[in-house]
Amino acid sequence: MSVDYVAAARRHIRDAHLLQHAGRMANAGQLFGICVECGLKSLLVRAGAPVDGTGSLLKPFREHMPLLGTLVTGLLTLPDGRAASILQSQLPNLTSLANWKTDHRYWIESAIPLSASLQAWEWAALEMDALLDEAAGGGVL
After folding, report:
1. How far apart are CA 111 and CA 108, in angstroms?
2. Would you say 53 and 1 are in contact if contact means Cβ atoms under 8 Å apart?
3. Residue 77, pLDDT score
4. Element (H, E) at 125
5. At what angle do helices 81-90 and 114-136 cross, to 10 degrees?
6. Which one, of 25, 22, 28, lies nearest residue 110 by Cα?
7. Reported pTM
8. Which residues contact 67 (CB under 8 A, 6 or more apart)?
9. What is the rounded CA–CA span in Å between residue 101 and residue 130?
C-alpha cells in the first residue's frame, strides 16, 4: 500500500515547524492542519474504517478538516464511546481547526487567520503527534 497516514502526519508536522522557523507561517499553518487530518485518518483506519487498495480511506471518511474532525468527534465514525472519549480528551485543540481550510492554499496570505489561529493549529498538531505515539504503543484505540 502506498498510503501511510501516520508517516504523512509525522512528515507534515516536521515540515510545518521548519517553515514556521523560516517565517513561512501560511504554509506552516496549512501543514499543521494536514498533520491533524492525516492523524485522524490513521486512527480511523486503525478503528476499522474501510480503505481502498492503496490504503486510502473510502467515503464517507475521505474528507478534509474541519469536516473530518466533525465526523470523528460527532461519533459518526467511532462506534466505541470509550475510544471517542479518549480521542476528544487527547485532542482538546481539535476544534481550533474549525476555521482551517484546505482552500487556504489558494488564498492570499493576509486573508488566512494566522494571527488568531496559527498557535492553536500548532497545538492541535502537537496533540495529534503525541496521540499517535500513544496509539502506536497500543494505549489508545
Report:
1. 6
2. yes
3. 44
4. helix 114-136
5. 130
6. 25
7. 0.87
8. none
9. 23
How far apart CA 134 and CA 46 sit, in angstroms, is 13
C-alpha cell at 112: 488566512
- Say which residue, 94 or 31, is predicted with more confidence: 31
Query: Cβ(30)–Cβ(104) under 8 Å?
Result: yes
Dig out the grid coordinates for 130 from the structure: 503525541
Pick 62 or 92 by higher pLDDT. 62
Examine the pLDDT at 3 and tell me if it is beyond 90: yes
Domain boundaries, the chain: 5-136
Helix intervals (H) in the chain? 5-21, 25-46, 67-73, 81-90, 114-136
* Cell 472519549, residue located: 85
> What is the residue type of 68?
L
